[in-house]
Please model this.
Amino acid sequence: MTIVTPPAAPFASRRHHPAVTALLVVVFWMIAAALVIASRTFVEPRSPRGAAAAEVGALLVSAYAYSRFASRDGGLSHALGVGTAWLGLSILTEVVLTAEEHQGWFTLLGSPDRALFRNVMLFVWIFAPALFVRRETAP
Amino acid sequence: LNRRGLSLSLLALGIVYGDIGTSPLYALRECFHGAHAVPVTPANVYGVLSLVFWTLVVVVTLKYHVYVIRFDNRGEGGILALLGLIGTTSRTRRKSLLIALAVFGAALLYGDGIITPAISVLSAVEGLQVATPFFNPYVVPATIAILVLLFLFQHHGTAGVGGVFGPVMIVWFATLAALGVRGILLHPSVLLALNPWHAVTFFAHNGLPGFLVLGAVFLVATGGEALYADLGHFGERPIQVDWFFIVAPALMLQYLGQGALLLDDPAAAVNPFYLLAPKWMLYPLVVLATMATIIASQAMITGAFSLTRQAIQLGYLPRMAIVHTSAAEIGQIYMPTVNRALMAATIALVAGFGSSSALAGAYGVAVAMTMIITTILAFAVVRELRGWSLALALLVTIPFFVADAAFLIANTFKIAAGGWFPLLVAGIVFATMTTWRRGREILTRRLSEGALSPELFIQSLRRRPPVRVRGTAVFMHRDPDSIPASLLHSLKHYQTLHERVILLTVSSEEAAHVSEPERIARETLGEGIERVRVRYGYMEDVDVPALLMRLDNIQPMETTYFLGRETLVVTRGRGSMMRWRERFFASMMRNAQSAANFFRLPPSRVVELGAQIEL
Model:
């Protein structure tokens, strides 16, 4: 007798427990934040414009990785929720670090002195995960 | 009020009065710290407070709560209800102008719907800046995060959380009143501002700058139109009870309290609402204000969904997906397309303007125009439908018109500072609505050109009977006086006809609801063919299978629904519309939700037969 076992769904296609989803959101935010900080630290001294492009690129790559490996079947609402959570975590981090260092720490969202770039980063943090959504609603 | 009335009153506090109830966050600040601010002198404070009080009395209380609220369209209010009362079918030049005005007024409401969430949530979060400048860089990001969450939440509907809106707003209005009393106790003489003479002397002393401050004073009344638009949800009494016993007293005490604070400390003009509160209360007040503004925004978003559905049913917008978020409440709907457009525009506004003070420049123009249009339409209604004499109608209308015109003129000075935005939105929506309406009229005319009458068709069937197959076929079409092209195509190509054929025309009426006895008209034409006309109100949803089940127990899964699918060809020469409008209409036709979805037809039972139509 042959027992046919259905193939396991890839990790990204499974419906995760909400706690796992939350953990994945935080992990991928940490990756995104690390990439943004690295761009700011290593690229900006040489080329501020290059650093800006690298930061946006870092967020897009992280968002793509999240949608590819953590939530392949996630819908648009989920992606926007993830983007908002990433923005919330970034705000929280900046507030905490600013309070600790007693001076403005704006590495994740960009300096308020560069309002246009800060707005661009704000939009990218929120909407980057939504750019890679494959379906409007989750199955 | 009975128990139900009281519960409606509680619910209405959040939905109807969210917008006007959150104006104290920014209205008085803009009078003394905005683009057209006047200096904070005692005379100016008394003058502005007097203007605020009399604006609330004349515009909100007398015009909306006493006068306009009486013009309901079978219980429904709002500018489209007025349009329905005036009627869109018979056209004279004057009536066409009124219809265009009403449609433009409806388009303006979308501009308001975008600005209200942006300005109200932003002004609430700005309370953090009063606590410490440390939070300055985070006001815009935090506001955007809140707004995204608010729009994301829409597809769940408000049925679950709607119950907390009323209690939160009770706490909000109680807080407004308590803080107001606290301020008045600082300077009890501020109560003298209720004397209209202060408003008169204010204009006399300040000249043009005094007139321009009306653009900021008007912010206290911007939610006025909402109470009329929400008439159908709550009815006249609960809305009036809320206003006269809770909202108006709380707002007046709050504005007087802010005025008293300014008399005591002119530097408080930077944010009189938050500076009126004791320091310990600041953070809880930011939280409460944010909740109140979220509720106000929710009301505007829901209002935009409702307005869009009305416009679709009245034939001014293409069909769009409508999701019902509550099985119990038919009015609880979610429209993904509208939600996304509102979210994108609201977020862009917050990021673009950056502060509620800058946004206040954009706020007011659209509302002032909507209000004056409402006054004009109400005049037409009292003259033509209520039979008022010209003298009486003018006697009532002229004071409101003068007040509306003064506010509108003052607000036009804000166009360069951001007022262009709601006008741009309204222009786009107006072009969309009128193009869709006109395009549909032309399309209907083209389709009826050379159409076959039912009588001739039946005669030809009798002469040459086709093969009849089992089952029921429903042919849906617009013109009940002709045979649908899809039926002729079907007969031509398949050479067969179902045993039972229903020619179904669904029309949307200018009334909000249609009573059951008036809903269906059926007529047997012979040869197994029946003509059925179904009428729906513009606040009702169309469900064709459910209707046919009720009609003759026609099973949806045993019926074939035939729909015509027109592909529009834009050609030179016919000239019914400008070419860009023809292309725009053709694009809307392609992107409109399919009739099958809109009429809730089972997808597996639908046959679409295409035809190319030259516009």
